[in-house]
């Protein structure tokens, strides 16, 4: 039933001797939220939700997740259908524009990505002067920020045109920047993008082509990379996407907002987990393949150690992306006729964990990061670039989420509140009187 505000339900809250009615928002998949935007004004109270596990920061039309059932859809399309039938460029278009492109729209988008694929030659100077042991995520976050200097968002073009050019520029150039960073870090000659290669084929070629050993593009490698990036393309309000929205809400240029997203993704509890998983599997391998010490440590409450690649704030079922990546890893290794001992260890670890009461009780399943490193190793990507690969995949999602905020007429600065529990009023003490 609708109430006077047109909302279909309301929540009654009695607090501080008062009872107030708060509107309830009902999502298109039946999710319900209590709109507390008038709470402080009506009651003087705020809510407190460390980690924001119970707090929605926006309404969105981009991605739907059902963590209990392991469902993930981009603009309503199940991610497994996109992984099977789509390409990363087509999925990027879907996320940003809300619909699958016609053939003409897709061709136009591909031409724009190609036209934007070079980076300013002066960028090489940055890469050549970054300390050699810098982490590629720190380099990527810094270099994305410099895009505003190289390509200032001009006020001359129409807003829509300017935004679309800027967003296409980001998706295309970050791929070139990542490959350039890798080549320069190895002292190799930079390989330029080619107009005759697709988005994923171009990246692999820029990473691995060499004058003395031309890179042999392999269809199964290109397919695996498309699937990998499709599966990483968006994931509603995760830590890094919320960072993009929050930083973007200050109306800073979109490059800076995306740079903040890259920094947020870097952490081992978030996107950095894919690198941490491989380091964990290598440690198990070095331990003679003996898994139990690692599982026991992960269960020990006195030990902060976590089983990397397991658990998720939203998924309390198997991460649907992990299933697809596991399948992709097996298919790629078979096609390339390589075997990876770490995959065998990962499978064993999954079997042990999923039968263990602790993991069952806490509903800890493999997440997107658990098997993704196996695919990346088979493609030849160095481990310290794994999270960069996650970031390249998440670009369309970050952009779509930033755009959804920016297009919202009620777009407001994100400014959470707090409950102060510190010192009450006291006064300055001259230093000579301090003990
Ligand atoms: C990503 O949000 C997204 O959508 C993220 C992402 C995306 O696409 O953007 O899906 C990508 O970040 C995937 C997650 C990658 N991170 C890891 O694999 C790191 C290992 N996992 C965890 O640290 C943990 O599971 C989190 C951070 C992913 C989720 O943690 P929560 O929701 O904050 O849960 P929690 O830390 O409060 O854990 C709840 C309980 C705790 O026990 P108690 O203190 O309550 O007794 O479960 C335990 C934890 O100790 N637990 C684990 C565990 N994960 C949770 N115990 C051992 N090993 C783990 N991996």
Would you kindly provide a written description of the structure presented here, covering whatever features stand out?
With 435 residues, the chain is mostly helical. The chain has 18 helices and 6 strands. The strands form 2 sheets. Strands 1-2-3 form a 3-stranded antiparallel beta sheet. A 3-stranded antiparallel beta sheet has the order 4-5-6. A hairpin with a 5-residue loop joins β2 and β3. The relative contact order is 0.12. It binds s-citryldethia Coenzyme A (SDX). S-citryldethia Coenzyme A is lined by residues 51, 235, 238, 269-271, 273, 298, 306-314, 362, 364, 367-369.
What order do the strands of the largest sheet run in, or round the barrel if closed? 1-2-3
- Our count of helices gives 18
**Which structural class matches the secondary elements?**
mainly alpha
Largest beta-sheet details: 3 strands, antiparallel
Mean pLDDT: 95
Gap from first CA to last CA: 66 Å
Q: Bound small molecules, which ones?
A: s-citryldethia Coenzyme A
Radius of gyration: 24 Å
**Unreliable runs:** none
Secondary-structure element series: EEEHEEEHHHHHHHHHHHHHHHHH
Helical residue percent? 40-55%
- Per DSSP E runs of 2 or more residues, the count of β-strands stands at 6
Gross geometry = globular
Strand content: 5-15%
Provide tags for this entry.
single chain, mainly alpha, three-stranded antiparallel beta sheet, 18 helices, 6 strands, 7% strand, binds s-citryldethia Coenzyme A
